[in-house]
Every structure is written in C-alpha cells, then in structure tokens.
Design a protein that fits this description.
mainly beta, Immunoglobulin-like, 4-stranded antiparallel β-sheet, 4 strands, elongated
C-alpha cells in the first residue's frame, strides 16, 4: 500500500506586492507546519500569503497590517 506524499510545496509571503519570504518545501515539512519569521513592515497595507501543496491546491489569503513604528 502506497500513500503519496502531501505537503506544502511552495510558500510565498509579500506586502504591497513586495516579496518578504519565498520557500520551496519538501517531504521533511511536518503534517501541520508552523512557519515563523521576522520582517520590517513597509508602511501600512496588507500582507498576502499563498501556499501551494503537492496536489496543486492553492491557498491564498490576505490580512491588514499596520506599521508599529518598531
């Protein structure tokens, strides 16, 4: 019995169409991954996230982001 691999293959995060993080995953990505990163916001705007899995499913969302002045 063979179970095909299923994981996040590509992850892209941007703000105001400016790339923040881009990643290509592999079989070592956990079943329920949690990615953390730090970045400095470029003013106010939205942060956009897109993930593509090995089945070709695309997950997209965006959230408002306010600069904290830090």
């Amino acid at each position: 019995y063979f179970i095909p691999a299923h994981f996040v293959q590509k992850l892209s995060i941007s703000q105001a169409d400016r790339p923040i993080l881009s990643m290509e995953g592999g079989i070592s990505i956990s079943e329920d991954p949690n990615f953390r990163f730090d970045f400095k916001a470029h003013g106010n705007g939205e942060i956009q996230v897109e993930a593509i899995d090995t089945d070709g499913k695309v997950f997209r969302n965006q959230w408002p982001l306010e600069a904290t002045g830090l």
